[in-house]
Design goal:
The chain contains 2 helices and 13 strands; from the N terminus they run ααβββββββββββββ. The protein is α+β, with helices and mostly antiparallel strands. Strands 2, 3, 5, 6, 8, 9, 11 and 12 form an 8-stranded mixed sheet that branches. A 5-stranded antiparallel sheet has the order 4-1-13-7-10, with no helix packed on it. Helix 1 runs antiparallel to helix 2. The longest helix has 83 residues. It is rod-shaped.
Length: 246
């Protein structure tokens, strides 16, 4: 279209003035103008072609960049899927570990048992002028370490139902009665006793099932003016164990 416009302009310049203009024709000057115009149009066209080539190159580069980004995005998606799978596996592992910990806790909770005796030196304990806690220093069993051989006190490590048993004996005594009191947290639960002033050897025992919570303390006391006796045969003892946790 630009070439057509140039030709039209040239023809208009070359045609004689039909209006009878008296201006002399300068054909060389007009041709030079046409030549300059065509040259200028050529430069413009060349510049447009150059820009079009650059734009095409930019489009190719952009397309290549988009393809690379698509590949990178696909790789990221794959990594995210892998991380998701790893996270799921870790969640399963964590759940299994929690179950194992809970199982171990329950198994540990089921292992509570103790048994201890007065033992040596052989002979009577008591009588005392005040009710006295008996300390069974000879420990036969203390699974869970809930019994304290320094105080004679069993402390429940957690809530559950426990069985507590205690025994007592007397020998070569004709002055004081045989007996023990069982306590829980300072409260008197029961008394175990026997008339023993006849000098005959005697043995008594008792047991009780009780619900305890963590921190509850159970122990025995020797009543005022009562006696017990023990030797290497552990005739006076204090025992207990967990029946089931709660």
């Amino acid at each position: 279209m630009e070439r057509t416009a140039v030709v039209v302009v040239a023809l208009m310049i070359l045609l004689p003035d039909t209006q009878g203009s008296e201006k002399p024709l300068n054909i060389s000057a007009e041709l030079k103008q046409i030549k300059d115009l065509v040259f200028q149009q050529g430069l413009t066209l060349t510049e447009l072609m150059r820009k079009d080539t650059a734009l095409e190159k930019d489009m190719k580069n952009l397309k290549k960049a988009n393809e690379e980004q698509a590949v990178a995005l696909s790789a990221v998606k794959r990594e995210l899927e892998q991380l998701k799978n790893v996270g799921a596996a870790q969640a399963i592992t964590l759940s299994a570990m929690k179950i194992d910990v809970k199982t171990l806790k329950n198994e540990s909770a089921e292992k509570v048992a103790f048994s201890a005796a007065l033992g040596l030196p052989a002979g009577l304990r008591g009588p005392f002028s005040a009710e006295t806690t008996l300390v069974y220093k000879n420990v036969l069993t203390n699974i869970g370490n809930a019994y304290n051989s320094s105080t004679g006190i069993f402390t429940a490590p957690f809530r559950g139902v426990y069985y507590i048993r205690f025994t007592a004996s007397v020998y070569d005594n004709n002055s004081y009665n045989l007996g023990l009191n069982l306590y829980k947290n300072g409260d008197h639960l029961l008394h175990l006793g026997e008339n023993s002033i006849d000098g005959i050897a005697k043995h008594v025992s008792s047991g009780v099932t009780m619900e305890l919570v963590a921190g509850d303390q159970v122990y025995t006391k020797l009543p005022v003016n009562y006696v017990v006796w023990d030797d290497s045969f552990f005739r006076t003892s204090f025992s207990g164990f967990l029946i089931f946790p709660m």
